[in-house]
Amino acid sequence: MRIAGAALNQIPFDWEHNLRNIRSAIEMARENGVELLCLPELCLTGYGCEDLFLSDWLPETALAHLQQVRAWTHGICVVVGLPVRLNHRTYNTAAVLRDGQILGFAAKQFLANDGVHYEPRFFVPWPAAQTTAVDYRGETWPLGDLVFEHRGVRFGFEICQDAWQPAHERPAGRLVGRVDLIVNPSASHFAMSKTDVRYQLVMAASRTYHCTYLYANLLGNESGRIIFDGEVLVARNGHLLLRNQLLSFKEVDLEWMDVDFTTDLEPAAEIVPLPAPDEYLELNQAMSLGLFDYLRKARSRGFVLSLSGGADSCFCAVGVAEMVRLGVAELGVELFKSRSGCFPETETVVQQEGAGGKAGQVVDASPATTEASVLTVNQQLVQQLLTCAYQGTVNSSDDTFNSAKELADSIGARFHNWEIDEEVTGYVSKIQQALGRELTWQTDDLALQNIQARVRAPAIWLLANVQNCLLITTSNRSEASVGYCTMDGDTAGSISPIAGVDKDFVKKWLRWAETELGYPALRHVNALQPTAELRPLEDKQTDERDLMPYTLLNRIERLAFYDRLSPQQVLAMLEGEGTGFDKEQLKTYVRRFYSLWSRNQWKRERYAPSFHLDDYNVDPRSWLRFPILSGGFAQELAAL
Ligand SMILES: Nc1ncnc2c1ncn2[C@@H]1O[C@H](COP(=O)(O)OP(=O)(O)OC[C@H]2O[C@@H]([n+]3cccc(C(=O)O)c3)[C@H](O)[C@@H]2O)[C@@H](O)[C@H]1O
Ligand SMILES: Nc1ncnc2c1ncn2[C@@H]1O[C@H](COP(=O)(O)OP(=O)(O)OP(=O)(O)O)[C@@H](O)[C@H]1O
Ligand SMILES: NC(=O)CC[C@H](N)C(=O)O
């Protein structure tokens, strides 16, 4: 039997869009002789409908739309994810359709409730071994713990989290001997290296439960924060039959495999491990797709970025250039442009860059009649999609200016340069007048730093508004942890692409990107120490002097909020880890971390939406909840 999974790039309750993708997946599958097709979890509504799952109307509308899908299923068996509401409870289900009929709804038994997932808020888990009936306009279908048969192949379900349960709980254990195939429609968020975990789950299930396992994940940045990698896997008795390229820019990624269910296959002696995932590459692909989807789904015309020439803003600039490079490599120029929604019909692109071309290459054959024609096609696209501005003060250095300008030029971004000293002086003198005293670095250090960061916000916002663009804010996870940022200053913006990764990772990634992705202009930033450049230059301000070494900050953050240790336990762990710091220094850093962490929860509550990229993040709306006002670990820190 030819079985298939299709990763779909959906949008919460964008019915037209979601149904179009579902229809094209089914049509493509039928054209290619697929007999059974699995579409991802909740693909009809989108996974991220949040509290709308609690309404009556959303599941009702989904069921009404499912009736349209029936007509597309002649000659094929299709699994479509949607919520079903019965007696004021919403169930997360996979509908099975064939030949215009609905055969039933398999219901999810275990709900994801960790990290970025919050399913028990919306859904009720379905009890094992039970079924009920759904009545709709004179028809009745079964719903619950169901087994189906298609052309002699018996199949049952695990719906995403079902497969992540311990062996004694997961549905697969009870399906042994009753089915030939387990189908898993999923909405499993991207995190670096996570594909390996998923691969192990699917491979081990097929081996342990002696079956074929078909897995299909959602694709893309569906609703703002979570990115799905569109993984499709087929495994049989511990042998991998199919694994696709992840994080495609396509709307629909259909993958199929022929499985001969009539012959037995010797179970694999062991599961062949995947090569270790390359996290730098993975992040690049996820961030590029995350930005592309955010841009088009927000119906914006591009991005604006305050480019300091430092690590964070350079990372964001390269992120947009990579979005173009990877998007064009996969979709081609015309499809990339039309899918982005950022280019009016009249625009023409003079020449297409070869797939996978490195950034910064010049297209020799371009007619040299206009300035644009000496840019590569990718650079021309970046020019349309990214506007940067360097906003210097007396405290800015030539190093950062050169870094910003050269990077912007090399990727093709529009680059502006202006100074903000006049505005800073204007505000400072107003407050001096109001207070009747001078503001000095001795008495008003932080306030004088913050006003510079804040004064950068209005002009860059104005530019974003005028161009109908999204303003990128450049915060990373480390500065979010300790509030090392000025609220309404450098946090100003509507999308925060790198707030999910730590500063040490940012620095390492940039070094990798300089050589591996071909961005020689990054050599400037890669030679710089991270600095806010908010104090007078002779002060030689650096982030790490203000805070602590970033590697240590990351370690404390992870121990405190991923491993959930107490301050005392964190200190004890650090002491045993050979950090190179003595006990008193470590105490100082642990105290500093926890007090800055506690004092700055309100800032984390106000960050722009950010992507989930690492195995955890500190965003209170997607991963880590913490009180805004608290005891601030006063007793615990005093006891260290
Ligand atoms: N619990 C709470 N709930 C609500 N608001 C609270 C609050 N606690 C203080 N606040 C408010 O917070 C204000 C202080 O916050 P805010 O004005 O943001 O500034 P603040 O956190 O005092 O200082 C900003 C820090 O970030 C660093 N920085 C700034 C800009 C850029 C960079 C860089 O790396 O490039 C670094 C700078 O060196 C400084 O250490 C207070 O005036 C108060 O109004
Ligand atoms: N001179 C500047 N011109 C334009 N934007 C600036 C300037 N200085 C700071 N910013 C904005 O403020 C943000 C915060 O500064 P921050 O120092 O945290 O990041 P960075 O400069 O990108 O990297 P690094 O910390 O490694 O120097 C910058 O990313 C940038 O968006
Ligand atoms: N949608 C889900 O059930 C997701 C669950 C699972 N823990 C994952 O991260 O993939």
From TrEMBL:
The active site is at E41 (proton acceptor), K108 (for glutaminase activity), C160 (nucleophile). It catalyses: deamido-NAD(+) + L-glutamine + ATP + H2O = L-glutamate + AMP + diphosphate + NAD(+) + H(+). In the C-terminal section; belongs to the NAD synthetase family. Belongs to the NAD synthetase family. Residues 1-261 form the CN hydrolase domain. GO terms for molecular function: NAD+ synthase activity. InterPro entries: C-N_Hydrolase, C-N_Hydrolase_sf, Gln-dep_NAD_synthase, NAD/GMP_synthase, NAD_synthase, Rossmann-like_a/b/a_fold. ATP binds at T474. Catalyzes the ATP-dependent amidation of deamido-NAD to form NAD. Uses L-glutamine as a nitrogen source. Its EC number is 6.3.5.1. This is Glutamine-dependent NAD(+) synthetase. NCBIfam families: nadE (TIGR00552). Deamido-NAD(+) binds at N450, E479, K603. Keywords: ATP-binding, Ligase, NAD, Nucleotide-binding, Plasmid. It comes from the Bacteria. L-glutamine binds at S188, K194. It is an enzyme of class 6 (ligase). Pathway: Cofactor biosynthesis; NAD(+) biosynthesis; NAD(+) from deamido-NAD(+) (L-Gln route): step 1/1. Gene3D superfamilies: Carbon-nitrogen hydrolase (3.60.110.10), HUPs (3.40.50.620).
